[in-house]
Amino acid sequence: MRRSGILSRDHTAVLCLSAIQQIRSSAIERVMGGGMLPLVLTSLGVLLLYRLLVRLRNGASVQGAVVVITGASSGLGKECARVFHAAGARLVLCGRDAARLQQVVKELTAASADTQQQTFPPSSVVFDLADAGKVSRAAEEILKLYGHVDVLINNAGISYRGNILDTHISVQRDVMETNYFGPVALTQALLPAMVERRSGHIVVISSVQGKIAIPYRSAYAASKHATQAYFDCLRAEVEHFGIPVTVISPGYIRTNLSVNAVTGDGSTYGVLDKTTATGWDPIHVAHAVLKAVRQRSKDVVLAGPLPTVAVYLRTLWPALFFKLMSSRARKERKPKTE
Ligand SMILES: NC(=O)C1=CN([C@@H]2O[C@H](COP(=O)(O)OP(=O)(O)OC[C@H]3O[C@@H](n4cnc5c(N)ncnc54)[C@H](OP(=O)(O)O)[C@@H]3O)[C@@H](O)[C@H]2O)C=CC1
Ligand SMILES: CCCCCCCCCCCCCCCC(=O)OCC(=O)COP(=O)(O)O
Questions:
Q1: How many whole angstroms from 71 Cα to the centroid of ligand 1?
Q2: Does residue 157's CB lie within 6 angstroms of at least one atom of ligand 1?
Q3: Is residue 257 within 6 Å of ligand 2 at its C-beta?
Q4: Which parts pass through the membrane (predicted)?
Q5: The pLDDT of residue 7 is above 70
Q6: What mean pLDDT do residues 17-31 have?
Q7: Has residue 300 got a pLDDT over 60?
Q8: How remote is the CA of residue 321 from the centroid of ligand 2, in Å?
Q9: pLDDT of residue 337
């Protein structure tokens, strides 16, 4: 991907270095002449200037980049497809349902007519992430399309509703296959080609529930915690190849995630929960995903104040967090254990 920010990393560094030099000479003057206040004020000024410069830097462009999006047939994946397509990416859209993917391709192609930006007709690859054999064949198919992948966005996922006592072990495994082993298998199949080119970017859509576990979400929260851990390890292991890894942890988003969720007996939950219905607009989240890709962010939480406080509370005051979760579990107790 090309860097085309308003300010390049080099410009930012030069501006910060000259500011630091000013501080140093001001520090020497203060030590010689006394009075620390101007030194503190100058330091604060530099800090603010640095933050402003980082904001102004747009980061890498996705124009012409080969971007693979899983779960592109609906919800957040579909909105990411829209946003990355409009930004000029060469898209490879993945999902299980060929007809729904084709519909997205059709919509994006129609939207291309209204944009000044150079856009590319999206491709699609159909496969089930929960089927390990199909994932490696799909990765070969993906690589054949353009010869390489610039950005892999592991977005596809399924949620779960149920209490552990009534949940069949096969459901725990199935959620893990889709949410954890699927993205891991796809990432590992596409990674060697990225390492060979010393170029690429791996992104995963986790969840706030990859950082905190809430009651009656065991399979989902466990799969997202595993996701967070795996991609944190990956980030450290592939950084020296120039491959960034971005974990994005959203709070509730207005999609069909809860409707498609699986329950303890394997049936579909089929309810649009109020938390989902009143969640963030998926377009807003998709723009945040594009920003995170451009800026090569490492870990991004996209949630309101309450979930964000809960994430910190889990680490800083776990006893209180566990108490709050127990109380929540008692209040929400599911019918079968009443
Ligand atoms: N909505 C929310 O509140 C939040 C969502 N997230 C995460 O965002 C991601 C996207 O979910 P969202 O858009 O909300 O939900 P949707 O249910 O709208 O989308 C899920 C997507 O995943 C695909 N998918 C599901 N199972 C498989 C599978 N076995 N193989 C391949 N693709 C599959 C579906 O495609 P198809 O069925 O066509 O194959 C669908 O496109 C998920 O990882 C979710 O955990 C994170 C935080 C909050
Ligand atoms: C001293 C002050 C304490 C304040 C802390 C209060 C703690 C409140 C707990 C808040 C829990 C927030 C849970 C957020 C969950 C979430 O956003 O999940 C995102 C999803 O992935 C949604 O999936 P789901 O299938 O569960 O709809």
A1: 6
A2: yes
A3: yes
A4: 35-53
A5: no
A6: 56
A7: yes
A8: 11
A9: 42
Please confirm, yes or no, whether 220 is among the known catalytic residues: yes
Give the alpha-carbon dihedral of 181, 183, 186, 188, to 10 degrees: -70
103-129 b/e (C-beta count within 10 Å ≥ 16 → b): ebbeebeeeeeeeeeebbebbbbbbbb
Q: How far, in Å, CA of 295 to CA of 62, rounded?
A: 11
Contacts of 212 (CB under 8 A, 6+ apart): 221, 307, 310, 311, 314, 321
The CB of 329 under 6 Å from ligand 2? The reply is no
Asked whether the beta carbons of 44 and 54 are under 8 A apart, the reply is no
CB 129 within 8 A of CB 154: no
> Which protein residue has the closest C-alpha to ligand 2 atom 2?
309
Least confident of 14-28, 32-46, 225-239: 14-28
Q: Does the Cβ of 261 fall within 6 Å of ligand 2? A: yes
Distance 75 CA to ligand 1 centre (A): 7
Which ipTM value was assigned to this complex? Answer: 0.98
Quick check: 100 and 74 in contact, CB under 8 A? Answer: yes
Of ligand 1's atoms, which has the minimum distance to the CA of residue 279?
3
Read off the pLDDT band of 313 (50, 70, 90). very high
Q: Is the CB of 208 under 6 A from ligand 2?
A: yes
Q: Which of 253, 272, 302 to mutate to test the pocket of ligand 1 (most atoms within 8 A of CB)?
A: 253
- List, for residues 167-191, the tens digit of each pLDDT value: 999 999 999 999 999 999 999 999 9
| Per-residue model confidence as pLDDT tens digits over 141-151 | 999 999 999 99
Alpha helices, DSSP H only, in the chain? 9-33, 37-56, 75-86, 98-112, 132-146, 169-176, 182-197, 218-238, 274-277, 282-294, 305-316, 318-331
Cα(258) to ligand 2 centroid in Å equals 14
What does the pLDDT read at residue 49? 81
Mean pLDDT, the chain, rounded, equals: 90
Query: Which residue, chain included where needed, has tokens 């000259």?
Result: 18
